[in-house]
Amino acid sequence: MRHLVSASFVVLGCALAQPVAAQNEERGVPIVQAPFHVPVFTNEYVTLLNVNVPPGRNTGYHIHSSDSVSVNIEAADMTNQNLGSSEASPPARGQRGRTTFANYTKEGTRTHKASNIGPTPFHNISFILRHPGSDGSTPSSRAGVPGYTQIMDNERVRGWRVVLEPGQSTGEITQQAPGLRIVIDGGVLAEIVPGRADRGMSPRSGDFLWQDAGTRRMIRNTGTTRIEFVEFELK
Q1: What CA–CA distance (Å, rounded) separates 99 from 5?
Q2: Mean of the per-residue pLDDT values for the chain?
């Protein structure tokens, strides 16, 4: 009889735990706590997430509430499902290197989960802007500077893409606002700052570098492979 009563409590406990777990999933968690979203850097301006979703796994429901920028490092076949919806979106394969801005401050909070239904890992680098409005910085233009192609310009951030074949260099720029470099295709490069010795670097795909305002520099591909990265300055 004691065993029967004990077993009954176990069954009752499981029955009670299941709705609680379901409620937690349905409610969603802050994005910095979501499965496969790993915070790897934070400062007064941004929190940067390294997002790696293996094949057959999903992120669980998580909440987007702050403006953010995302860069696809490795694309995969993904579906998305908003909280409260009974259906997921059709599978979509994001373009490698695609960069997007989400203005959740104006468009409102979103809670969703993303599922990797394909055979390859999904890899994304995202940074969340910690302040709800502009910090008052004025980014550089880089217009006409060799090597820089502007890909983004909105009320929060300005961004450029750089693609360098072996031996190629960018023109010189002066970074006027704080920001980030995110590497899509790594290699070997030299960062050239006037008055200093050239600084060699060997970044890999998915690497990032925080950059303070005020730096003058140019970049040269000193390796044997194509290099691609994106740079951002905050507003």
Answers
A1: 58
A2: 91
